[in-house]
Design brief:
The complex is a heterodimer of chains A (206) and B (480).
Chain A lengths: L5 E9 L6 H4 L19 H4 L22 E4 L11 H9 L3 E4 L4 H8 L4 E4 L2 H13 L4 E5 L4 E3 L5 E3 L4 H9 L3 H6 L2 H14 L9
Parallel strand pairs in A: 1-2, 2-3, 3-4
Antiparallel strand pairs in A: 1-5, 5-6, 6-7
Chain B lengths: L6 H9 E3 L6 E4 L2 E4 L5 H10 L9 E4 L16 H17 L3 E2 L9 H7 L8 E4 L13 E4 L2 H10 L1 E4 L3 E8 L8 H12 L7 E6 L1 H4 L3 H9 L8 E3 L4 H7 L10 H10 L11 E6 L6 E3 L7 E3 L13 H14 L14 E4 L7 H11 L9 E4 L4 H9 L2 H8 L2 E2 L20 E4 L14 E4 L2 H10 L22
Parallel strand pairs in B: 3-4, 3-6, 4-5, 6-7, 9-10, 9-12, 10-11, 15-16, 15-18, 16-17, 18-19
Antiparallel strand pairs in B: 1-2, 2-8, 13-14
Helix pairs in contact in B: 2-5, 6-8, 12-14, 12-15
Classes of the chains: A alpha/beta (206), B alpha/beta (480).
The structure holds iron/sulfur cluster.
The site of iron/sulfur cluster has 13 residues of chain B, from loops.
């Protein structure tokens, strides 16, 4: 996993509440068995018209947000389906961080596993950043995970809270399966104890 | 902590393997359900790292999202879907995981077959790369959806590092009136607390109205927990639970059954347990509900009308509601009962179990689907389909003009050929009315199976409480 320390990039505003993962990556693209290449299908039904052309109205199609790597989103971003394809699509498109007032739980977990930083900020702060991203040409933000801060170089600076372990994994780009496997002995003794205490909860297939 | 423990506390504590310094708790997973869409990349990850599956026999896989619902003897025309199913088949073979393939008698939607095979049991932790895993909480299990990286994590370690969510009690007093179902209760709760009302929480549903629900009803209720943002939903097990599980294929057999039920009876919140949040709702006052918008929280009673965005205080809400109205091609003030539908879908992990089909059949019996409507029933599993056919429900549906299909997720998400055409309006018993969920440009209204059946016949939404039907329920035959 790619570590996340400090990232500076263009901020693109997507000011809608409850953006669900069906919008982020529609179902017709979930049949692929690869982990890569989902970026071109990101927000497919919003980015493209019924006939498949790019819709110039949609924020990510506007020249001023070309190459955006920080998404400034609405409340409850990533709700709905658990599809990790949503995080893959955002990362593959080039996003490194998403700022929003709140995120759905599974989506936030999925992002963390893919080096994509989700930052929760108060509703007013997000509203302020959204406005600036619309009004200031070439608006850029710096997201600093070491300092836990967001700064736009135009006088807006906000600090954010994040789970310490999640922060550590992102900073180091850690494979957390490896960490769990270090507890293999404890897992084995847990299985042994449970098997003795409640044999009826053993593996169903044997 | 002061006071007693919640059911969730007990399940959590029971599954903590260890709590490494500065890290989340490591939670043991008893049952891991796998399907074709969210697993291929997880198996690839295992192979790339040279890891094996720690407990293949605590893992079970099936195909449900992609499968066609037409004649199973025909070859699958969608080659990309076929490849995804074939990939799961190969992965299960390689890693020794039990697999219920498309032709097997056990195939069905993961959240339907887990319970009906007796795999889901009280006191367990259950995960699946699917948000509606919350369904299994109906048995007093801690069940939640995970992403593909976490699927890989569970395959490799049978554990998941987790921070403990907060707890929330939804206490449902009274009793649901005739014609009002667990689906309506779920929609009422989401309407009340919002689609992020339970984010970061595990919900325990309690109260007389919940106790009175059948297992099918409890599954519908827990299934929809994710639509309120919850990490999981659960109901403490009781005699209804035990009666449902008893005799199923993977249920404990005598003498282990005695031991199991003794343990299961201990799985309840203590009377002095403290929840981080409590929400109360009176079931007796609830009507049938219909969603009008593009989020499950955009919901009103069938007797109501499409709301006006002007009523909402926040600008972002007004914009979202206006956008939803536009997408749904509805005008504020339109009576719900005046909304005509083109399609009716009875199915999905929310409402495709035998009781759901019985309830819909009661309403349909002796009627015909309106000439303007195309309607289909997709049973949740082969077992549900067989039971329904034994009871003659398929005849009732077919005679009325419904298509009677093979089991799968089908038009709940339209990954297979069952999709809405742009602009088509559908009364659906599924769980998500998101833009394009059932097909690009399709317009979904979420309802209960009874309400969907009534809409199919009437051609528009109608208050099923006024419908003249006979209840032909017989819980004793409920084996599917
Ligand atoms: S029926 Fe629908 S919600 Fe349920 S598992 Fe299938 S696609 Fe997901």
């Amino acid at each position: 996993m790619q570590p996340f320390r400090v990232h500076e990039g263009t901020g693109a505003p997507l000011d809608r509440p409850n953006v669900d993962t069906d919008q982020i990556i529609p179902k017709q693209f979930l049949k692929r068995i690869e982990r890569t290449g989902f970026g071109e299908f990101l927000f497919y039904d919003w980015r493209r018209t019924g006939s498949g052309e790019l819709d110039p109205q949609f924020v990510l199609n506007q020249a001023r947000y070309a190459g955006a790597s920080i998404l400034v989103a609405g409340r409850n971003f990533g709700c709905g389906s658990s599809r990790e394809h949503a995080a893959w699509a955002l990362a593959d498109f080039g996003f490194r961080a998403i700022l929003a007032p709140s995120f759905a739980d599974i989506f936030a977990n999925n992002c963390a596993k893919n080096g994509l930083l989700v930052v929760e900020l108060p509703e007013e702060t997000i509203a302020g950043i959204t406005l600036r991203a619309r009004e200031i040409a070439g608006y850029r933000l710096t997201v600093d995970l070491e300092q836990r801060s967001v700064d736009d170089g135009h006088g807006l600076r906000a600090e954010f809270a994040i789970d310490e372990f999640r922060r550590y994994c992102l900073l180091e780009g850690l494979d957390d399966i490896g960490l769990t496997l270090r507890c293999a002995d404890q897992i084995t003794s847990y299985e042994d104890r449970r098997g003795r205490e409640r044999p009826f909860q053993g593996p169903p297939f044997c | 902590m002061t006071g007693g423990c919640t059911l969730f506390d007990k399940l959590w504590d029971d599954h903590v393997v260890c709590q490494p310094e500065g890290q989340p708790a490591l939670l043991y997973i008893d049952l891991h359900l796998v399907h074709e869409v969210t697993s291929p990349q997880a198996f690839d990850g295992l192979r790339a790292a040279g890891r094996r599956v720690r407990q293949p026999l605590r893992t079970v896989a099936t195909v449900d999202h992609n499968v066609p619902t037409t004649d199973r003897r025909l070859p699958i025309t969608d080659q990309i879907a076929a490849r995804q199913m074939e990939t799961l088949r190969r992965n299960c073979r390689e890693f020794g995981i039990p697999f219920f393939d498309i032709g097997s008698a056990e195939q069905g939607i993961v959240h339907v077959i887990g319970p009906e095979l007796g795999l889901t049991q009280p006191g367990m932790t259950v995960v699946c790369g699917d948000s509606h895993t919350s369904t299994h909480g109906a048995f007093g299990a801690l069940a939640f959806g995970i992403g593909t990286s976490e699927v890989e994590h569970v395959l490799a370690t049978q554990c998941l590092p987790q921070r403990k969510p907060r707890s929330m009690q939804v206490f449902v007093d009274g009793r649901l009136p005739k014609g009002v179902t667990a689906k309506d209760l779920a929609l009422a709760i989401i309407g009340k607390i919002g689609t992020d009302g339970a984010t970061g929480h595990v919900i325990e549903y309690a109260g007389p109205a919940v106790r009175a629900l059948s297992m099918e009803g409890r599954m519908t209720l827990c299934n929809m927990s994710i639509e309120a943002g919850a990490r999981a939903g659960m109901v403490a097990p009781d005699e209804t639970t035990f009666a449902y599980i008893h005799g199923r294929r993977f249920a404990p057999k005598e003498p282990a059954w005695q031991e199991a039920t003794r343990y299961w009876r201990s799985l309840a919140s203590d009377s002095d347990a403290q929840f981080d949040r409590t929400v109360e709702i009176d079931a007796s006052a609830l009507p049938p509900y219909v969603t009008w918008g593009t989020s499950p929280g955009m919901v009103v009673p069938v007797t109501g009308a499409v709301p006006d965005p002007k009523w909402f205080a926040q600008e972002t809400d007004r914009q979202a509601y206006t956008r939803a109205l536009e997408y749904m091609a509805l005008r504020p003030g339109t009576k719900i009962e005046d909304i005509a539908v083109d399609r009716v879908f009875i199915g999905s992990c929310t409402n495709s179990r035998i009781e759901d089909l019985r309830e819909a059949a009661e309403v349909v019996r002796g009627h015909r689907v309106a000439r303007t409507v195309q309607a289909m029933v997709v049973p949740g599993s082969q077992a549900v389909k067989h039971q329904a056919e034994k009871e003659g429900l398929h005849e009732i549906f077919r005679e009325a003009g419904f298509a009677w299909r093979e089991p799968g997720c089908s038009m709940c998400l339209g990954m297979n050929p069952d999709v809405l055409q742009p602009g088509e309006r559908c009364a659906s018993t599924s769980n998500r009315n998101f833009e394009g969920r059932q097909g690009r440009g399709g317009r979904t209204h979420l309802v209960s199976p009874r309400m969907a059946a009534a809409a199919a016949v009437a051609g528009h939404f109608t208050d099923v409480r006024k419908w003249n039907y006979e209840e032909v329920r017989d819980a004793a035959v409920s084996r599917a």
